[in-house]
Amino acid sequence: MARKTPLYEAHRALGARLVDFAGWEMPVQYTSVISEHEAVRTAAGLFDVSHMGEVEFRGPGALVSANGLITNDLGRIADGQAVYAGLLNHAGGFVDDVVAYRFSPERILICVNASNRAKDFAWMREHAGAVKPVDRGDDFAQLAVQGPKAATIVQRLTPLDLSSIGTYHFAEAPVAGVSCIVSRTGYTGEDGFELYCPPERSVALWNALLEGGAADGIRPAGLGARDSLRTEMKYALYGNDIDDLRTPLEAGLGWVVKWDKGDFVGRAALESQKKEGVTRKLVGFEMREPGIPRHGYPLLDAGVPAGMVTSGTMGPSVKKAIGIGYLPVAMAREGMQLEVEIRGRPVKAEVVKTPFWRRS
Prior knowledge:
- Helix content is 20%, strand content 35%.
- The protein is of the alpha+beta class.
- It folds into three domains: 3-48 and 140-232, Gyrase A, domain 2; 53-136, 2-Layer Sandwich (Alpha-Beta Plaits), CATH 3.30.70.1400; 279-352, Aminomethyltransferase beta-barrel domains (Elongation Factor Tu (Ef-tu), domain 3, Beta Barrel).
């Protein structure tokens, strides 16, 4: 039976269409994916992402233990900053992609994907150093306010000066009277905040954000818009674009690997791959003939299978059918022609520069 977030009844009251996602009953849309997507691009959208997991390292040595598990470097950032990172297996593939928050050298919080909560925690427990992590997933609800008006809306509800919170920075402060971790992060390509709060106060915070942002055009948004927004940015989705068989170097995420930080799980495998060179790369492409690429569709080179679509959609903001997928290195160049096999028929496409969406 699918789990429910603390906001389940609020979603039902708003008429959301609910689906099973990673074992959770989640809203895929309230009105339409396109209208919710456009609200995020032009005003603001409010997402329930309470299904995400949180793992905490606490005590002397917490930073060292957490840092040995991820590719990015918590040692090179200040307290109140966060990093996007890979949590890798010994072969260099992704156990997950995560965001790690540095409160202090003695307190690190790592946000993990909903589908990987149990797996990630078990992996961290097994491979952590002296400080073992604690599963805090049920101690937080998480709301994401995303869009060009997100800061205006949240600022009305908090005494925290949001102009002092840069991208990938965070602070602890009340929002609408609810104690929150206020993090300037997101998964949409827009400015915005992810608000971690006590589950029992999440409905009050949700309602305050919808009421406080009504004049600015805030709308509740579901997983459908979240997916189209992140696809337009070529943000990786675990299970589609990255998994335990694909490495950061193949996925175009080499920038999250800090080679000068010292050892981390998966480092040796990545060093070997870097030396030998990758054989495939994750690219973005646009359709040049009518057709929408979907996860699992074959990518063809002159009719011969060459790769696979990992994500695809009709991009509401770019007004084009777009896709993401792995291709051999020789084909992973801007301007390269290829085909997507859609229901047995080859349809023309072209490798393009990403992200697909850029704010003008």
